[in-house]
Amino acid sequence: MRLAIPLLITALLISLHANAADPVTVTTPRGAPITVVANFPEGTGPFTTVILGPGTGTMKQKINEVVERELLKNNIAVYRFEWAFYVKDKNSKPSDADRSPEIEDFSTVVALAKADKHVNTKSIIVGGKSRGTIIAWQVLRNDPSLKGILQLTPVCSKEGFTADQLYPELGDERRPSIWIAGDADSACNINTLYSFLARAGGPARAAIVVGDHGLAGESTSHLAAAFSADFVLALGRNKN
């Protein structure tokens, strides 16, 4: 799916670098506003970059924030954002029947990152938490230029859905992936995850840590962040 870059892209990139901790508003091709925060290591880059999609709610989830800090420590840039439905109404819920708006939200952030001279466009990794993993998978499948995917708390055994429905064409995907889940996660049975990833078409890591779907425990979140950074650094060293 090819998205047009907004005309104000240069101004937005200047805003992102002027104060990386502050969100900027970006308009998707369908006209919906999302908020984006980009954090960069010191230096000019270009940097290996990770784009993390949030769960059903806000991007301000502990696991994403801990992972972001660890990635920045390892000279990796990070983009995070709020879904358009959340920006419009924090109490609203997205549709499981039509995920195209969130796919467009995520793809808009990918386009923003690709237009940034501080980003190594040959080393962009997508991923997310919970619902963000589902959307990131579709974005990865739509964009062959992306390097791999970082999946925090995937949804592999949600009632009414199978892992194959949520992450289709796993056997056709050759790019590296990591799937980090808690051993007590009600949204992803570990045996189901192992069985699913056994059919992956490319190198797929499974990292199981102590915790539930939030991965919010202090030691758990830091271990998940270390796994994440190790995965991304390995991809950065792979020039293919």
UniProtKB/TrEMBL annotation:
Keyword terms of this UniProt record: Hydrolase, Signal
Domain KANL3/Tex30 alpha/beta hydrolase-like: 49-221
Coiled coil: none
UniProt keyword Signal present: yes
Domain of life: Bacteria
Signal peptide boundaries: 1-20
Any GO MF annotation of the entry: hydrolase activity
The keyword DNA repair is assigned to this record: no
Protein name: Alpha/beta family hydrolase
Native source species: Methylophilus flavus
Lineage, broadest ranks: Bacteria, Pseudomonadati, Pseudomonadota, Betaproteobacteria, Nitrosomonadales
